[in-house]
Design goal:
Layout lengths: L14 E7 L4 E7 L4 E9 L7 E6 L8 E6 L5 H14 L9 E8 L10 E2 L2 H9 L8 H14 L5 E5 L9 H4 L5 H6 L9 H14 L8 E7 L3 E7 L2 E5 L21 H8 L5 H10 L2 H6 L4 H9 L3 H25 L4 E5 H6 L1 H8 L11 H5 L6 E2 L8 E4 L4 H13 L7
Parallel strand pairs: 1-6, 6-8, 9-12, 12-14
Antiparallel strand pairs: 1-2, 2-3, 3-4, 4-5, 7-8, 9-10, 10-11, 13-14
Helix pairs in contact: 1-3, 10-11, 11-13
Bound molecules: adenosine monophosphate (AMP).
Adenosine monophosphate binds next to helix 10 and helix 12.
Subcellular location: Cytoplasm
Catalytic activity: acetate + ATP = acetyl phosphate + ADP
EC number: 2.7.2.1
């Protein structure tokens, strides 16, 4: 299902409210797509608990922090959470009824094979997102809750779903399929979907812009290294491979996820260690990765320990960097020619040692970082490879909210959004 097959909506305003609903949280940003500026941002935490908290920030022009308000009071559910957010926005003169609001853009984690583009939400789209709950049991129900609540609050406002998986639906079949029995795989929709797609789309395009080139001409390897982490290979703006699979567990070493393991590890833990399937699920998703290896999942803390000579932290760091290097090599081979390697998200944007370790020894592939450029701190997109390097190495801050707003606005407005 693509945008072209759904109902279209048209808008007069230029603002987009971006909603990211988690199981017990609701993150939001209000952006003005006339110039891409951010007007307000906030977070509702611990929905359904006695200690819920809403933090709302009205931004000054240019995106600088303006006034912040925090409210601590029980918020029973997503409906109450979004009503509180709407009240905060209304208090700043930017309520959901405002004619300047063009649409709400929802981050939806799993769009399966059907949703290849951002899509205006109607009943058929909601039903399909619901049908995908078995492959995204933690995320899609929360996303659905956010959509239904937003619809109820202002039924006339177009709601757009922007899927984490959509950017990866261009992967060729030989990259998307696991080598398992085809009938079993198809019956249960077992294939590689990939996640973080909004970030990979944004960062690969920004990297081409940084090089002053058309994204359609540029091949980029993107390393999205946050608490969750994934790599992608993007050929001429089109994703051809990514490291996450049926779920976000596959691929790189992450904050708490193992990434790649021999699937037989699961049978072994089940049969020999007597662990239940749920216990193994928790082990691999929540107690593994950097946390499982050294007790910390924050790269700042791990580097502090490494600098103090802690061998356990050093080994965790080395395993993390080794896996990155394997993926860089693999994606280099998949692409054949690489123009740029881009680092993004919390670790990728901030950890010079990770960037240095990931490309060390890859001079033969034309990959290297300039020590001084790599160490310099900045929050803008920048090159860190030596002058004249065969492959550009870049640090590109990701902006998933801006990308969701851009894709949402493109769908509901006749005017192109400015970047
Ligand atoms: P994200 O999921 O993109 O918000 O990334 C969160 C992760 O980024 C944290 O768990 C840290 O490991 C890492 N991180 C954030 N700031 C820094 C920093 N200054 N240096 C190294 N790692 C950082």
């Amino acid at each position: 299902m693509s945008a072209a097959t759904t109902n279209t909506a048209s808008a007069t305003g230029t603002r987009v409210l971006v909603l990211n609903s988690g199981s017990s949280s609701l993150k939001y940003q209000l952006l003005d797509m006339a110039d891409g500026s951010r007007l307000a941002t906030g977070l509702v935490e611990r929905i359904g608990e006695a200690t819920s908290r809403l933090s709302h920030t009205l931004l000054a022009s240019g995106g600088a922090p303006g006034t912040s308000r925090t409210r601590e009071a029980p918020i029973a559910d997503h409906d109450a959470a979004l009503k509180s957010v709407a009240a905060e926005l209304a208090a700043d003169g930017m309520g959901l009824e405002s004619p300047e609001l063009a649409a709400t853009g929802h981050r939806v984690v799993h769009g399966g094979q059907r949703f290849t583009e951002p899509t205006v939400i109607d009943e058929a789209v909601l039903a399909e997102i619901e049908r995908l709950v078995p492959v995204a049991p933690l995320h899609n129900p929360a996303n659905l809750m956010g959509i239904r609540t937003a619809q109820a609050l202002n039924p006339r406002l177009p709601q757009v779903a922007v899927f984490d998986t959509a950017f990866h639906t261009t992967m060729p079949e030989h990259a998307a399929r696991y080598a398992i029995d085809v009938r079993t795989a198809d019956e249960h929709r077992v294939r590689r979907y990939g996640f973080h797609g909004t970030s990979h789309a944004y960062v690969s395009r920004r990297t081409a812009q940084l090089l002053g080139r058309d994204p359609a001409e540029v091949n980029v390897i993107v390393l999205h290294l946050g608490n969750g982490a994934s790599a992608s290979a993007v050929r001429g703006g089109v994703c051809v491979e990514t490291s996450m699979g049926l779920t976000p567990l596959e691929g790189l070493v992450m904050g708490t996820r193992s990434g790649d393991v021999d699937p037989a590890v699961i049978f072994h833990l089940f049969r020999v260690a007597g662990m239940s399937v749920d216990e193994i699920d928790i082990l691999l998703n929540k107690k593994s990765g950097l946390l499982g290896l050294c007790g910390d999942n924050d790269m700042r803390e791990i580097r502090r320990r490494v600098d103090e000579g802690d061998d356990t932290a050093r080994l965790a760091f080395d395993i993390y960097a080794h896996r990155l290097k394997k993926y860089i090599g693999a994606y280099y081979a998949v692409l054949g020619r690489v123009d740029a390697l881009a680092f993004t998200a919390g670790v990728g944007e901030n950890s010079a040692p990770v960037r240095e370790a990931a490309v060390s020894g890859l001079d033969g592939l034309g990959l290297a970082v300039d020590a001084e450029l790599n160490a310099a701190r900045a929050d803008t997109a920048r090159l860190i490879s030596p002058e004249g390097a065969r492959v550009a190495v870049a640090v590109v801050p990701t902006d998933e909210e801006l990308e969701i707003a851009r894709q949402t606005y493109a769908l509901v407005s006749p005017e192109p959004a400015r970047e």
